[in-house]
Amino acid sequence: MVTGTGLCQSGTSILGCYGGTGEEPDDQTRDSVRINKQIEDELNKEKKKMRNRIKILLLGCGEAGKSTFIKQMRIIHSGKEEGGWTVEEREQYRREILMNVIQCIQILLEEMTGSLDTSLNNTAARLKELKPDQEKDQAKLWEYRDNILAIWEEPAIQETFNRRNEFNLPDCCRYFLTNISRISGPTFLPESKDILQIRVMTTGVIEYSFDMDGKECIMIDVGGQRTERKKWIHCFEDVLLVMFLAAASEYDQVLEEDHTENRMEESLNLFRTILSYHWFKNSAIALFLNKKDLLKEKISTSQLEKYFPKFEEFKGYKTQDYDSAMSFIKHMFHQQKKDVEASRDYQDSNSDGYTRSWFVHETMATDTDNIKKVFGDVKVTVFTNTMKDIMY
Q1: What is the C-alpha to C-alpha distance for residues 241 and 244, in angstroms, rounded to an integer?
Q2: Which of left, alpha, beta for 353 (phi over 0: left; psi -120 to 50: alpha)?
Q3: To pair with 383 at 20 to 30 A between CA atoms, which of 106, 110, 151, 270?
Q4: Does residue 27 carry a catalytic annotation?
Q5: Buried b vs exposed e over 17-56: b needs ≥16 C-beta within 10 Å?
Q6: Is 228 a catalytic residue?
Q7: In this structure, are residues 53 and 218 in contact, taking their beta carbons and an 8 Å threshold?
Q8: Are 333 and 286 in contact (CB under 8 A)?
Q9: Residue 68 annotated among the catalytic residues of the structure
Q10: Is residue 320 flagged as an active site residue?
Q11: Is 229 among the catalytic positions?
């Protein structure tokens, strides 16, 4: 019969169990004690690390500017004016730029309804045959550079460019084609201003870590296309801040993956879905209405009310006006938030009545000064209000 003196009491170490019997622990028991201590030490280290870690999730539909924002974080926090890009990274970015050039010129030629000057037809035919991701074809852009610039300046191409909302054309088109003589050079290595213009679809999940006021900040960029969203799920836990990027200029465009769906409608629907997830009940929300420069350019020729008739009922309605249009876009996103937080499901999951922080910023992700100021505002307002509750 086993007596009470031989039993382990709650809170007693494994070696302590043997102290009452005078027995020496065997090798297996010593290994168990050692492993147990290692696990406890690792858990304590992880807890300490978590207290000094800030997790930011960057969400939004495809082509909203999330990857450009990540590049800006690299530039801003690298401590170097040019972002600290390695030669290998700049060479890879050069390939991506030339790929964008071929893609843009081919899309414009495909969508063109008019005619080019006959002297440019041979070059146009050759450009149509290039494969964007083939380096040998990218190298030919230097040979064709003068004619590419001439094609870009052709009235038929400019007319096509002006109705780019009717098809999917990368936003970098004008920048790269007007700079074709520089960026197609054999020895060209891109600078930050060039790298920020690149448009390549993000697949999977990309993490970027940087130091922020002595804490490790992890910013997570995920693919925005519908097929990529199923990969988000494992990123959702322990998020301090959700940054949602929406392209304010895309109210008159359709999704690349679904030509029946308006891009802004898709962004509004995704924003509503994100806000309804219980994972983000205690996360601060920062809405970045991006591409404000493109909205300002577009709004004078493309009426917002044509695509969103309720704009005409908006209190601050003024047709073809940037401030009025931006105010209405903010209103639509804010309405999504109000609708989610008024729902029974949200209120049931938020029984403690927590009110999450909410911030809206107008941004231009390709403008480093703009993003530096906006992110500075986010740090001051969001982290001051939430880190006390979440990090300590």
Answers
A1: 10
A2: left
A3: 270
A4: no
A5: bbeeeeeeeeeeeeeeeeeeeeeeeeeeeeeeeeeebbbb
A6: no
A7: yes
A8: no
A9: yes
A10: no
A11: no
Report how far residue 357's alpha carbon sits from residue 341's, in angstroms, rounded to the nearest whole number: 13
Catalytic residue, chosen from 29, 134, 225, 320, is 225
| pTM confidence score | 0.82
Out of 154, 171, 194, 221, pick the active-site residue: 221
pLDDT at residue 7 is higher than 50: no
Q: Which of 26-40, 174-188, 244-258, 342-356 has the highest mean pLDDT?
A: 174-188
Give the pLDDT band (50/70/90) at residue 19.
very low
| pLDDT over 80 at 285, yes or no | yes
User: Which spans in the chain are helix H?
Assistant: 14-19, 27-51, 66-77, 87-111, 121-129, 135-138, 140-153, 155-162, 173-178, 180-183, 192-195, 263-276, 292-298, 304-307, 322-342, 344-349, 368-378, 384-390
In which band, very low, low, confident or very high, does the pLDDT at 125 lie, cut at 50, 70 and 90?
Answer: very high
Active-site option among 154, 199, 252, 336? 199
